[in-house]
Amino acid sequence: MWLRFVKMHGLGNDFIVVNALEEKLPADLNELARRVCHRRFGIGADGLIIVLPSTQADLRMRIFNPDGSEPEMCGNGIRCFARYVYETGLVREPEIRVETLAGIIKPRLILQEGGVTGVRVDMGEPRLEREKIPMTGSGSPVVDEPVVVDGGIWRGTCVSMGNPHCVFFVENVAEAPVTTVGPAVENHPLFPQRTNVEFIEVLNRSELKMRVWERGAGETMACGTGACAAAVAGVLTGRSNRKVTVHLVAGDLEIEWSPENNHVYMTGPAVTVFQGDYPL
Q1: Known catalytic residue: 228?
Q2: In this structure, what are the phi and psi dihedrals at residue 234, rounded to the nearest 5 degrees?
Q3: Are residues 150 and 66 in the same domain?
Q4: Is 223 among the catalytic positions?
Q5: Max Cα separation, the chain?
Q6: What global pTM score does this model have?
Q7: Domain shared by 160 and 49, yes or no
Q8: Which residues participate in the annotated binding site for substrate?
């Protein structure tokens, strides 16, 4: 038995996309994700995306991390999802309503001469209440709160973009201890569902530079929800404007936290790499 898939990426954050409307999937999707995302013994990816029917929206997206866990949402992943379902004819309109564990997300394809040049996503409102992130303790919003890690104190600003984020501002992001502090904070008792961890260098009020430790995936080249959380944290701490460019390892995301409706908008690329068949 073979599984047809498409490999895609958003700024190097790469995904295996499977159309479950046509493909028969094994019952254990957590184990499938662990197998196919393995970079030595599988296809290799930061996540497995499943395209499913929905009774609430145009389609439903499920995403699984390389460790088999299922996050609520993925910003880079939903851009890839949107491009895939449009180019394969599963949807006809450039604006799509996608059911996720974080609610209904609305990506809009940016088209030029019939081709997709990018995707702008209405990510909805950031959740700033501590219990909605979720975090233990008391007091909201969580802005520059001390987080004790291995005897040191880091000041985190925490946001949910449908999934949890803890944002640290640093002087030099290239030297940030992403691979040591990142996993320690991911699994910190403050975060009962674990958390993504962003390290942000403020270049100026309109530009942020970011590295990220993703929950269930480790350090990745990009994180769309993380870039949104970083932009919100920049505003909450007075470090940046509501519209910023977030520089990631493989390129940029444009993020805007609208004062009109409180929604966060993310604009960036989605690229198809190859397609193939994986033996089950």
Answers
A1: no
A2: -60, -40
A3: no
A4: yes
A5: 56
A6: 0.93
A7: no
A8: 13, 65, 75-76, 163, 196, 214-215, 224-225
